[in-house]
Amino acid sequence: MAGKRVAKSLVDWAAFAERVPPGEKDIFRLFKAKSTGFITKIHQYPESLPAIDFASYKKLLKNPKLVETFEAGYAALTIPYPTDKENIKGAVSSEEKEAEADMKKQVEGLQAMISEAELMLKKLDTLPKPHEMTHEMFADYFPESAVDPEKPTMYPHAKPYQPENIPNFLK
């Protein structure tokens, strides 16, 4: 039983606190206080059963057989340590491995998106500054956003408000 008692907390509370959003700091403090309370309650009891001097009780009591019965029962007393009968720890560790594999896939996808975004930024850096760009240059660089003189638009000059994008417009 001596090796089973946790000497220090397995939780890195400082790292945990860094990851808690500002709006949930109070809940985190309550959770940490409750955890500390549980650990304090566990540590207030001795790690092993206290030793009882049965010899002094044999001298004091008239029936030493009763003391011997109690001594044998006390020696045979074992308090079982909780076991994981349903293998919950194994299930959690397998789920953790699956989540880690999924996370690696997500990280790879995000790294690909980052590299695409960096390429786009490099392309945008090659463009002239907006105050130096003319309408013709804008039309060359961004043909889908440029004003087409062959196809005038109606106020408020946004695509959703144009007649071709409004169902049943003047039909």
Automatic annotation (TrEMBL):
Pfam families according to UniProt: Mt_ATP-synt_D (PF05873)
Protein name according to UniProt: ATP synthase subunit d, mitochondrial
Protein localization: Mitochondrion inner membrane
Domain of life: Eukaryota
One GO term of the biological process aspect: proton motive force-driven ATP synthesis
GO molecular function, one term: proton transmembrane transporter activity
Entries under InterPro entries matching the protein: ATP_synth_F0_dsu_mt, ATP_synth_F0_dsu_sf_mt
Function: Mitochondrial membrane ATP synthase (F(1)F(0) ATP synthase or Complex V) produces ATP from ADP in the presence of a proton gradient across the membrane which is generated by electron transport complexes of the respiratory chain. F-type ATPases consist of two structural domains, F(1) - containing the extramembraneous catalytic core, and F(0) - containing the membrane proton channel, linked together by a central stalk and a peripheral stalk. During catalysis, ATP synthesis in the catalytic domain of F(1) is coupled via a rotary mechanism of the central stalk subunits to proton translocation.
Primary subcellular site in the record, as a coarse category: mitochondrion
Keywords: CF(0), Hydrogen ion transport, Ion transport, Membrane, Mitochondrion, Mitochondrion inner membrane, Transport
Family statement: Belongs to the ATPase d subunit family.
SUPFAM superfamilies associated with the record: ATP synthase D chain-like (SSF161065)
Entry's Gene Ontology cellular component terms: mitochondrial inner membrane; proton-transporting ATP synthase complex
